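Justification of computing resources. Each target in the renewal requires a structure prediction run like the one illustrated here; the chain below, 156 residues long, is used simply to show the kind of job we budget for.
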Amino acid sequence: MGPALLSLAGVTLGAGGSLLGQYLVSRASARQFEVQETAAHRAQLKDAVLKFIGIALQVDKAARAVSDSGSTIADPALGQLLYDLWLAQAEIDLAARTEPLRGATYRYALSLAAAARGEMSEPSAVRAAQVHFMDAAYDDMWPRRRRTETEPVAPR
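Resulting structure tokens:
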């Protein structure tokens, strides 16, 4: 009877060890998948954010030209810039995980569009929207990480 019990105990310990090993491997695989998924999201969002920022800088430059000279940009050029801006905003809207980033992107694009059309004369409103957008983009890409230093964007 003793050898049978020892044999049964060995089988039970072996099965338990095997199940524990499988659990640990599946847990590590799930964690690795989560890390890869987060990195892929961050890369996709980073590309969308950089595209949006590039277009936003062009629209901002056009808006400053409008406010400095009091003139307007040729309608086709302004229309294409604003179209590209809203398209880039929609790209972020699709890629973003958080609602604050979606809202901040929309508000920044809206303020840029208003400034480019000469409807907004206060550059600080555009800068405030830009700061909120950048903060929201950072928070969406690195959700549980705080910035070490936050400095407001200096007006031009």
